[in-house]
Design brief:
The chain is an alpha+beta fold. The protein is built from three helices and five strands; from the N terminus they run αββαββαβ. The protein has a three-stranded mixed β-sheet with strand order 3-4-5, with helices on one face. A two-stranded antiparallel sheet has the order 1-2.
């Protein structure tokens, strides 16, 4: 069973830039990169990311699930992730993502402040 779980299954090949040039990226690799972009965008955390090519347009639609920080407004968190994903898709991956649909499906506790010294007590907690 471990061998099956460890096996990398290639996903669909997504066109990067001009399709005539033949540059592609694996869907799973692209989804991982976009989840990382979402995680680094602010307080929300990415759950799933699905990329769907739009055949007639040559573009890609992304669908993501997130967990959000309940101490902050939800819509700005989703918008922050959407902008980060669109930017990363275009400028880092070279993908023509034109739509990012986001569903917030859970809440997570706010991130605790980090202590500069592991042995010191953090007074902010």
């Amino acid at each position: 069973m471990r061998a099956v779980r460890a096996e990398h299954r290639r996903g669909r090949q997504l066109s990067r830039g001009d399709p005539a040039q033949g540059h592609h990226i694996d869907e799973n690799t692209a989804a991982k990169a976009l989840r990382d972009a979402a995680d680094n965008a602010g307080t929300a955390r990415a759950g799933s990311c699905r990329l769907t090519p739009v055949a007639d347009e040559g573009t890609i639609h992304a669908t993501m699930t997130l967990t959000a920080d309940p101490s902050r407004p939800l819509l700005p968190q989703a918008n922050q992730v959407r902008q980060a994903v669109l930017h990363n898709a275009q400028h880092t991956l070279g993908l023509a993502v034109t739509r990012v649909d986001i569903t917030i499906d859970d809440l997570h506790p706010p991130k605790a402040p980090s202590c500069p010294d592991r042995d010191a007590m953090c007074n902010d907690r």
